[in-house]
Description:
The structure holds two protein chains of two kinds.
Chain A: H1 2-28, H2 37-41, E1 51-56, E2 63-68, E3 73-77, E4 99-100, E5 103-104, E6 114-118, E7 121-131, E8 136-141, E9 147-152, E10 159-165, E11 171-176, E12 180-181, H3 192-195, E13 196-205, E14 212-220, E15 224-230, E16 238-244, H4 253-256, E17 262-269, H5 270-278, E18 283-295, E19 300-312, E20 321-327, E21 330-335, E22 341-346, E23 351-356, H6 357-365, E24 369-373, E25 376-379, H7 381-384, E26 385-390, E27 396-401, E28 406-411, E29 416-421, E30 427-432, E31 437-441, E32 454-459, E33 476-481, E34 488-494, E35 502-506, H8 507-510, E36 536-540, E37 543-551, E38 554-556, E39 559-564, E40 568-575, E41 584-588, E42 596-598, E43 603-608, E44 614-619, E45 632-638, E46 647-649
Chain B: H1 2-21, H2 28-36, H3 54-59, H4 65-74, E1 86-91, H5 93-97, H6 103-107, H7 113-121, E2 124-126, H8 131-139, E3 144-145, E4 151-152, E5 154-157, E6 160-163, E7 166-174, E8 177-182
Parallel strand pairs in B: 1-8
Antiparallel strand pairs in B: 1-2, 3-4, 5-6, 6-7, 7-8
Amino acid sequence: MKIKQSIFSIILVVGLLILAGSCGQQGNKSGALGSNMAERAYVAPGEHDEFYAFISGGYSGQLSIYGLPSGRLFRVVPVFSVDAEKGYGFNEETKPLLNTSFGPVPWDDAHHPDLSQTNGKVDGRWCFINGNNTPRIARISLSSFETEEIIEIPNSAGNHSSSFVTENTEYVVAGTRFSVPVPQRDLPIDEYKGNFKGALTFLSVDQESGEMDLAFQVMMPGFNFDLAHPGRKKSHGWMFFSTYNTEEANSLLEVNASQNDKDYIAAINWKKAEELIANGEFETMESEYAHNIYDESTHMATTTMKKEVKVLDPSKYPGLVYFLPTPKSPHGCDVDPSGEYIIGSGKLAAALTAHSFTKMLDAIENEKFDGEAYGIPVLNYDDVVAGVVQGAGLGPLHTEFDAKGNAYTTFFISSEVVKWKLGTWEVLDRQPTYYSVGHLMIPGGNSQEPFGKYLVAMNKITKDRYLPTGPELAHSAQLYDISGDKMELILDFPTIGEPHYAAGAPADLIKPNQTKFYKLEENNHPYAAKSEKEARVERNGKEVHIYMTTIRSHFAPDNIEGIKVGDKVYFHVTNLEQDYDVPHGISMIGANTSELLIMPGQTETFIWEPKKEGVWPFYCTDFCSALHQEMQGYVRVSAPGADVPLKWTLDGE
Amino acid sequence: MKYLMNLTMILLSIVLIGSCTAPSGETSGETTEAAASHPMGQASVQDDESDANILQVAMSSEAHTTLVAGVQAAEIEHVLVNAGPLTVFAPTNEAFDALPEGTLDNLLKPENKNDLATIITRHAAPGSYNQEALKKEARKGRKLYMATGDYLEVVVNGDEITVGGAKVIGTIQTSNGVINVVDKVILPN
Lengths: 653, 189
């Protein structure tokens, strides 16, 4: 008995020691509890995130908005694709935003969001994003979080090296990934060389309204233009584009476009281009492209078809473009916060290449050229290279920066983020990603002043990361805390579509400018009804216009008679609310379109073409109030020849 | 003795385990404080741009300081700020003063919080009823359904409207409903 008790005591003591020991150890280890990783990504209920993250929605065509460090998804802003939830592309007001020279295109492949800047710093005014498939650039207001403008890019195809913004938002660039015949024409495909061109488009931005205008195109040889970034500080005035397929292959590019030992980074002197344009030294080319603008006062978008572009042929204008040889089909083309280093990530190269802007200028000044390509001077690799990061990883793609002179590069093949030092080119740290990372984002990472606290890795492959949802999996993103010497993985979160790049900004920069509702007195929609007294129904032949209002918790009118089969019925619905966060929705049984979701003070329109006689209900789709379930109405539909008079009432009056 | 030792060990181990898994104390301070105060819900939302809601209008009215004190004592602020829509028949300070001596003081005592909440809630009807709408209710012979489940009669006499015996002496449209100022506290029959 005594022995048993002694043994029991010993076991307890040993157990205690183990417990105490493991407890102490956890504090030193990088386990989740030990280093408070969960706490670092935790935003307490009711608290706000420190950063906004604008993450490309990839093939959803949209822009998703997350908070960092929580990884919470706040909103998906519809941009290039219709969105029935918000009526985007379905209601009459937003349909024109999706117009192109090919007609309305209801989808695109959204790629690289970038934020407006002032003096090289993100300023929280607008977010730009490119549609890759049918080349377009969109501008999203960061006060209303609505797509305000979409401009089509002519002479372009696969609008990939886009939509990067210069230091004072002078320009947003859009470079073509696929070269095409310019002008487009019927041509045997194997006559590619010499006939196909690569257009690099510069869109100027009005600093007040944000409206874009196609300022000029630099018409480059028929290479593939992959990514771009603006010069900054000393290199402000230049734009750098990576190229691949300098072989000008038109088939089996995976082999034929990987033949050259080096492709180029194209350095475009856009200040020089501005001078040429100002001096009238350009060609005007006939073209056709849509320019769609949403007016926040009328709540309506309009399309203007444009007919001309100003084109610059770089072979005719010395000093406009130079080629910097860069190993093996460079993908990412990133410029560090000082503007000195231009990083080329050769997808197939064993090392990362950093070019020096100072050395580039020196080589240009001393005309140290290694021949030319299509009349464009090629600089000597050895004359412009600043350094090479050796043995960093396999399959480098993209690089972002912190404010301490470090760079962070993603490696697709070796599935990792690697931190290295600018200037010494030494590798400082590496962390795995889950799995096969593509883009990465550090808030402010494409500016003079990065906020080097968090890094978001956007992965291409998800595999076992989340609960499985069939063969289609949300792409995974990972959040790293990069405030210390070593990167620490603190959070996983799913994304929509396949995010290609993202942009981030401090919440305090954007939060104070929010539109909370639209003021009714500033509603200039031509079909607005600004009070219930203005609610009415008007017939014009077979066209019927219903001027309807919503307020908690009824429509006015809510009983309508005298509608006939074969009519085209316009529901123009004005939300009379002036209270933040009180939208109303409306949907009509059998309408061949989406609901409307109408923000306070806003007017939106949908069309209903009744096909059957009867009495058909409509209702509010957004749980607006305690009496939301009572918010409904009826439309009586009569036969085409019936003589039921047009009548509209609310509560029988 | 040995039992005592074992007991000590067990207690000690519980303490150790406890200290090992206890959450960090740093972040819990704020949370505890927030939980301790009564839940204001949407009443704590900062919004200076929207039109004022019923609570905001009432709080800015000098004629309704008693009502507001009652709402606060009953801790029902959040009822007056939600999407509603709600119509509040708001007795003036004079209306409360006219109650029998001691009634109000008694209701404001913490132990009578529920009674106070019921009395105030009887002054609220779901829906938006301005004077025009009230006249329509009277014309159509519809009674007002109040948030407590009571039905109040609306009587129109010329330009004068009374609800549950209280005269409407003014109407204010708010972002989440209507305030009808009344000259009496509406008490149960």
